[in-house]
Write a structure and sequence with these properties.
Blueprint (H helix, E strand, L loop, with lengths): L1 H25 L5 H14 L3 H7 L5 H11 L17 H4 L4 H16 L7 E6 L6 H14 L4 E5 L7 H4 L8 H5 L5 H4 L1 E2 L6 E4 L8 H6 L1 H13 L2 E5 L8 H9 L1 E7 L5 H11 L5 E8 L1
Parallel strand pairs: 1-5, 1-6, 2-4, 2-5, 6-7
Antiparallel strand pairs: 3-4
Length: 290
Amino acid sequence: MASSNLATARKSIAPAHRRIGALLMESGKLGEHDLQRVTEYQRRHGVRFGEAAVALGLTSEAEVQAALARQFNYPVARRGESALSPMLVSAYQPFDAGAEAIRVLRSELTLRWFDRGHRAIAITSARSGTGSSTLAANLAVSFAQLGERTLLIDANFRHPAQHWLFGLLADAGLAEVLVGRGSLEETCLSIPVLEGLAVLCAGPVPPNPHELLSGRPLRQLLEQAQQRFSVIIMDTPAALQYADAQIIGARTGGYLLVSRRHQTRVADARATMARFAPTGAIPLGAVVID
C-alpha cells in the first residue's frame, strides 16, 4: 500500500516537472537532450527539476524562478525584454532579499491600512535623495503581483521619476487631469508585463504644483480612482522642502515616511511628522533604506 501511494504521488508531481521543463525549453534555456539529463539526475538524487537543472549547470536559479513564476502566472519582467528600470527589483528579481523586504512592507500596510477600508496612501520623505520614488514604484509592483488592481500616481511635480522607472512617455499625466484637459482613463497607462498595474505619470511639470494639488480636482480624481482600483499609491515630493506632500497626505489619509540610513536625521523625521500632524493623515510607519 505504501509503495502504491508513493507511485501515485510521483505521478501527480511529474506533470508540474514537465511544465517547468517545457517553459525552460521554450525560453531556450534547455534542449531535448538536456531534459533527459535533468530527468536522470532527478532519479539518482531525488531532487526537484529546477534543482537538478541548476546542479548540472544547464540553467541558473534565477531562470528557474522565472519559469516557476510563469507557471503560476506570477508577473515577472525579464531583463532585455522590458523597458522597466533595473531599479524595480520587485519586477525583475521578485525572489531576492530586496523584493522580500518589499513584500514584508506590503503585508504590514495591508493589515494596518488597506484591509481596514482605506485605498490610498502617500509615500514621502523628509528631503530629496532617499529613494522614496523607487520604493513607491516597487511597492506598486508588489501589490500588483498580489493580484490587487493597483494605481501608482506620480504626484511629485518637483522631481517626477515614475515615467523613466517604467519606461513610459511623460507627455500626459496628472497635470492634465488636474486642469481638466484629460481624464483618468485617458492618461493612466497599463504596464503590460505587470497585469493589474497602472501608472499615472506626472505629465508636463506645471509652474504652480502646490495650487494644482490643493484644488478640488485631486479629491475628485482619488474618488474616481477608488472606484476602479483597490490600491492607490501616491509618490510625493520631499515634505520639508515642499508643502505639496502635506496636501497629498490630507487627501490619502495616511502616509509612509521613507528615510535613508546615515543620511536622514532624526530631527528631520520628527519635523516631517509635525508637518503632517495638522492634516490628520495617519503615519503608517517609517522605512529606512540602506
